[in-house]
Structure formats: C-alpha cells, structure tokens
Design goal:
Two copies of one chain form a homodimer.
Chain A (H helix, E strand, L loop, with lengths): L2 H18 L3 H9 L3 H9 L3 H10 L2 H10 L2 H8 L4 H10 L2 H8 L4 H9 L3 H12 L5 H4 L5 E4 L4 H11 L8 E5 L5 E6 H5 L7 H4 L7 E2 L4 H11 L3 E5 L5 E6 H20 L3 H7 L7 H29 L17 H25 L5 H29 L2 H31 L9 H27 L1
Organism (chains A, B): Romboutsia hominis
Family (chains A, B): Belongs to the SLC41A transporter family.
Protein name (chains A, B): Magnesium transporter MgtE
C-alpha cells in the first residue's frame, strides 16, 4: 500500500550494513538517489552513533535540509557531536525560518552557542524571526525571498534573481519594493522571463498585491493562499515594508495542524495532547499529566452538568409507583439519542460556521431533520417496546419523549454554535461532551414533563 | 477583521452603480485592479441579469478564470446567456481539469453542447479526464504541464517552455520524457534557467521522481506533496507514461475537504451533508433528506445499543428496594462521564493513527489518564453526595462506579481504533455517538455489578 514506506525499509537495511562496513563512498552514492525526506526517515530509525556517522558523510546541502525537517532534540543532539567547522558550514545553508523555529524550542544558552556560529547577517535575521509569536504570520515566515527595485530593467532583475537564487526559498515570485523598502508590486518568474530585457519592472509588475501583516494570525495567511491559489504570500509590517514571505509548503503544514486542532476541540481536549502522545515514549509521566490537564476542565464541567441532571431526575416520582417503575429503564436511551443527534447537528454547524455565516434558518432546518429522524426512531422503539412489554402507556411515554427529545436535541446542537458566534465567542469551543451533557439535562427534563403529563391522565 | 470582505462590500456597490449607468469603460478599469477571485465573489452577490452584463465585459482570460472557480450551476447559467463566439473563446482559455470537474456534474446533453465548442485536442483531453473517478488522482489532475524530451538542450527546452507557458498550469517544474513518452526525470525551472544553454536535459534532470499513479487515491498525492514540499506532482499510468500533473492549489482544496470529512465522520454524519447545507437555501427538501440519510444509520445503530443498555438496566433490582432507590438518579452522570472521557480518548487515538501506528501501550496510557481523572472526579462527586445526602453507602457505590467507569471508558475509547486498525478497518468510522452508546452499555453493566457487590454486603 505505502510503497515509499517499503522502499525506506529496504534502504534502512542497506544503509546500516554500509555504515557497519565503513563503505562511505558506496553509502554516498546510494543516498544520492534518495530524497532528503527519505534520508531523514532513515536517520530517525538509526541508533545514535550510526545516525551521527551517516550525518557526517552527507553533502552539506542535504545535511542542512535534514536539520530543517528535524525537531529541537534531533537538531541539538546531532549538531553537538560533529566538528565545529562542519557545523558552521551546515548552519550557513539552513533556511532561516526553519532554524528560528527550532531555536525557539531550545534553552537560552544553547541558542547563543548556535548564534555564535552564524554570520552577522543571518544572526540578525534569526533574532528578528525569534521575536514573532508562533501563531502569527511572522512566526512562520522566511526571509529567503527575492526582492528587486521597481526601477530595475527586466534584464537587471533576472541577473539579480540568478545571483540570489541560492538563498531564496522560492524564486517563483519576485517582490518589488520602492526606495523606502515598501512593497509596491509583485511579479511572477513566468512574467519576468517572458518579458523583453529592457522593460522596466514597475511596468511589468502587478500592483494588486495580496499580503498579510507580520503580526496577524497565521490562519489569515492560510485563508489567503488557499483562496487565491498562491505559491507564496508576502508578509509586511504596518508601514508596508516587506519583512518576509510564507511559502505554500509551510501553509500546508499549518493546515495539517489546524485541521486536527478542530477535531480535538470538538472531542473536548487539545492538540497539544497529541503532540505529546506522538513522541517516542507514550507512557511517560509528563505525557499522562499533559493529557489529564487538557481534559480535566471539560470533564469537571460535564460532571457538574451531570449532577444537575441528577437533581432533575430525582423529581421523577413515578419510580416510587411500582406500576410505572420500568419507565426509568428508558432514560439512558431517550437522553442518549438526544445527545447523539445534537452532536451531529453541532458538528455540522461548527464546520459550516468556519466557512460562512450561519443563519437562524439552519436551526429550523435541524429541527426538521430531528423531526424526521425522530419519527423513524420513535416508531422503531415503540414497536420494540410493544412486542416485549405489551403496554401501550409505556410505548406512548417513551416514543413521545424520544421524538421531542430528538427535535430539541437537533435544534440545540445547531443553536449553540449560532449563539456563540452572535456573542462573538469562538464556536469551536463547543465540544461533543458539552453538548452531550447539556442534552442529558434537557432530555431528563423533557422526560419528566412528558411522564408527569401523560401519567397524570393515565393513572 | 476580514479586510478583504470589507473591500468586496465597497466594490459591490460601485460595480452595481457602474452597471446600472452602463459605464462599461469605467467598470473595466475598476475591475483591472482586482483579483479574479474577488470579481467572482462580487458576481455571486449580483442578480442574474447584472451578473451576465458584468461577465460580458470581462477580458477573456478573467472570464475563463472565473468559470474555473465556479460550480456547474453558475457555469451553465452564465455560458448559456452569452454569445456563442464569445463562449468559444472563453472555453478555449479555461484550464482543462477545472472544466472537466464542472462538466462531470452536468447532464449528458449539456456536456455534448460544450464539447462541440472545444478544439478537437481539448475535447479529447476532457474526455480522458472525465473517465477518472473524483476521488482518484486522475480526477484532480490537469493536462496543462510542460514536457520536454530528454535529448533537448537547455536552450531548446527554455524555448519550448516559453512557447507553451500560456497553456501550462505551472511552469515551475518541467517534466522530462523519453521517446516512448515515459516519465524519466524532472527539472525545476530554477535549475533550467541557471543552466548553460548547451547542457543536455538528461544531464540536468533529477531521476529521483516522486509521482503518483493515475488510479490511486487522491490522498496519496496529498501525502506526498505535503511530505516532500512539492509545488506539483506528476501523475503517470502503470506503464509510467506521463498523464498529467496535480498542482499544490488543488492539493490544498483536497486537504480542506478531507479535514472536514474526518470531523464529520467523528460526529457520525458525512461531509456530503455540509456540501448541501452550504448551498443557498438551507431549508430545501433535498437538503433535509440528504441530512436524514447521512445520519439515520448511526442513529439507528445507537438506538439499538440504547435498547441493550435498557435490558441491562432492568436487571438493577435495587430500585425496588426503597432504601437505595436514589441510586438510580446517578446513572446518567456515571455513564455520561465514561462516554465523555471515551470520546476524548478515541478522538486522540483516531488522530494519532492517521499519522503513525498506534501501539497497545497507548491503551495503557489512556487507562492511566482515566485513573487520574477518575480519582479527581470521583472524589468531587463523593463530596457533593456526602454534603447533600450524608449517606456513606451511596457515596461508595457512586464514586467507585464513576472511577472504574472512567478508567474503562478511556481504555475502550483508545482500544476501539486500535482494534479496527488491526482488523484493517478504517478507524475513522468510529464516531462519538457510537462510542457514547457503547460506553452507556458498559457503564450500566459496571454500575449493576458494583451496586450488586457492595449492596449485598451492606444490606
């Protein structure tokens, strides 16, 4: 199924035996055919000393790319074990945004040790990148972009681009600035190379620039790159000076993180929890503590909600009446079904809200869905009860409660996100456990009312 | 907050007044400053006749880009109202993969009408694209790529690229084929333009090609583009012949769809439901029916599960014993808490599984998390019960049941996805309602055991 994975398995064995037999030339030759990411995968499966040996024989640019992919632990454990000049040369080739991301997770002292190995220019760029918050556009941008002055000719710009291509993360967009370093235009490489040599950049460039501010949420960059199908987006400060760019591969990484974030929130936990769990040893103490911390707030809120449903429940006095004591057995299924349809409705509403405004008629719509599914489910349960208990009063009470509970559950599930949005609270804080607990309370209250009304007539 | 949205609001008013006053030149000038996507947004907010008027004055390439973004309904309603020659010219400029996506949603007759307006070459390409399934890589690929022969020189390749740049979706990767049309290499535009004119392509290209087969799941393309940070990925048939490419903007679209798919499955519904709900009129009959259809299987499964928990519940004979009748009131909170922590655990396990293999020790880990949160919650509920009821027997029964239920809930929540994966069933079919229902059954059984054991000793 996963052919790349299989290839890596074979490669791993081959690499191991080449290292063990000290066949460096063959090793280099073999690795030349593989992508950096595959070599990185291999390294993660090697023991520490073999990992270092392999790392030492890699070409400098491959070694740099591997560090770009790595996390803080891999980065410092590997670098600390290789020769200082080699270290310097590799660092020089690393992309600055990736280096800044890794450095931001290291201790103060370690950061300084690394900074000392960098050129002054790179160190300054890194210092600036380290200032920005991880969740801001500044936190994911890179300074490896190509910038030309608006007064250059196409020929000059191409020459400039060629000589700076090596440090750039992308050369497919060329950013145009004026003499005050303000971003005034953008030009695709495609437009540049198809232009006449003598054309002036200002005449070629598009002034319709889609950009983000350096202090904005990184989700804004994701939204714009996705909406306008960009390969990179420029990042500017509030004076419109170009500070960096965000490339589409980083946008994809953010999208992957944010997608799981939504699901975690919905399940009533946080995505920090997964980051911990995916680490090497999942039974460590810190991991369990991090999980407990992420979940306990939701659990306590739902526990308090559960106690509230208990209080309502204790008002159901039919359980003291032996004729109808069996009604109590239906409580879990009646309230559970309200919770289930409410979970579905609220997930739908939360997701719709992330793309567009929800209107109140969505709540009505959910009520209709609850009505139809409610009819189906209450007929079903009615038939089952009648077959086994032959008591039409119980059929009436349970079916009617289930029916009303499903309509109300669906409407509340859709209404909560709508209400939160109106109150300017992020609707994604609504989680399945919260909806389930809320609908337990509502469900028991409905059951209490229906049984009281119907049984009063019957008894 | 959403500055682009604000800009569109202003623009909408301006565009409307220019159309009403028939100021075509000013309208064209105004729109030149805006991105196609913004113009498309505007068009979606205009009434039908204004929309057509605006569409007619757009430059051909902008009109084509707008149709690329549109859905089948927008596409056919707009095209059917404009002059046939104009229609032909716009279609010629449309990207073929987008056109194929739209055509696949039209009626047979309508497709033929459109095909008649295309050049023979384009029509053939479209026919081929229409064969592939929507969820396959073939269904999202485009034929707008640049292909050169391995024997060309760099200079020849650049010339070839320049003359074909207009039809290409991306010119940033150049694909190299041999005389049998087999994909043998890839070259970035960057490498091409920095090469000497006389170099032979075969010597410049990389043979380490990351590609997908035309009949593979599109998620494989997403995985590879994301893993290897690509801007496009080539699509080949089983004979390794190049059939098309998938560009990163289409990968992003797929990611957005798939991300919500996971959450929908978890809530026990489907993402088709949202596609319906996001359409203009959310209260239409078809939409409600589509929602009912997506949800009813899950609801019926959970209903049957609910009935099972009822059967177990009816074996709780303490409710016939007036001294301990109040124990029944705690059932919703005890089983609800098991369901809540189980929902959290299963979401975590499903998400972890989507990235890497889950080991059994994750289940143990969840048991530990259940143990700690269980201690906290059972102490809390014990204190509350003692304060209000002053009955140590009830405190014991409820706290102990809650405690065991939370440990078991956490472990089952983590174990189910693990088990499904081992059985080669997609773990993402596990939904919050299913977990909640399963844990209702388990929870009641635990409550039954604990009360029977403890009360037998006490009574």
């Amino acid at each position: 199924m996963d052919r790349k994975q299989d290839a890596s398995q074979d490669l791993l064995g081959e690499v191991k035996s080449l290292i063990e037999n000290n066949k460096i030339l063959e090793l280099r030759e073999l690795l030349e055919e593989y992508h950096t990411i595959d070599i990185f995968d291999i390294m993660e499966h090697l023991e520490e000393d073999m990992k270092i040996k392999l790392f030492e024989v890699l070409p400098l640019d491959v070694a740099a790319s591997i560090l770009e992919e790595s996390d803080a632990q891999f980065f410092s454990s590997t670098l600390s074990k290789i020769d200082i000049d080699h270290r310097k040369n590799i660092l020089e080739l690393m992309s600055l945004d990736d280096m800044a991301d890794i450095l931001s997770q290291l201790e103060e002292g370690e950061i300084e040790n690394i900074m000392e190995l960098l050129s002054k220019e790179d160190a300054d760029d890194i210092k600036e990148l380290l200032i920005y918050e991880e969740e801001s556009t500044g936190g994911i941008m890179t300074t490896g972009y190509i910038e030309v002055n608006k007064d250059m000719t196409a020929k000059e710009a191409i020459e400039h681009m060629r000589s700076h291509a090596e440090e750039a993360e992308t050369i497919y967009y060329i950013y145009v600035v004026d003499n005050a370093e303000k971003l005034v235009g953008v030009l695709s490489l495609r437009e540049l190379i198809t232009a006449r040599d003598s054309s002036i950049i200002e005449d070629l460039m598009s002034e319709n620039i889609i950009s983000v501010y350096v202090d904005e949420d990184r989700e804004e960059a994701v939204r714009l790159v996705s909406k306008y199908n960009l390969i990179a987006i420029p990042v500017i400060d509030r004076q419109k000076r170009l500070k960096g760019i965000i490339t589409v591969d980083d946008i994809i990484d953010v999208m992957e993180e944010e997608a799981s974030e939504d699901m975690y929130k919905f399940a009533g936990t946080s995505e920090q929890e997964r980051d911990f769990v995916e680490k090497v040893n999942p039974t460590s103490k810190e991991q369990i503590i991090s999980s407990v911390r992420a979940r306990i707030p939701w659990l306590i809120i739902t526990l308090l909600g559960g106690l509230l449903s208990m209080v309502i429940f204790s008002n159901l006095d039919f359980i003291m009446n032996p004729t109808y004591a069996s009604l109590v057995f239906f409580i879990p299924v009646v309230i559970g079904m309200g919770g289930n349809i409410g979970t579905q409705s609220s997930a739908l509403a939360v997701m719709v809200l992330s793309n567009k405004d929800l209107e109140f008629k969505n709540v009505i719509r959910e009520g209709m869905v609850g009505l139809i599914t409610g009819i189906i489910c209450s007929i079903l349960i009615g038939i089952v009860i009648f077959i086994f208990m032959r008591d039409i009063d119980i059929v009436l009470v349970v079916s009617l409660s289930l029916f009303i509970n499903m309509i109300v559950g669906a409407m509340i599930g859709a209404f909560m996100p709508f209400l939160f949005k109106k109150m300017d609270v992020d609707p994604s804080i609504i989680s399945a456990p919260i909806i389930a607990t809320l609908l337990d309370i509502v469900g028991i209250a409905i059951y209490l009312m229906i049984t009281t009304l119907l049984l009063a007539k019957i008894v």
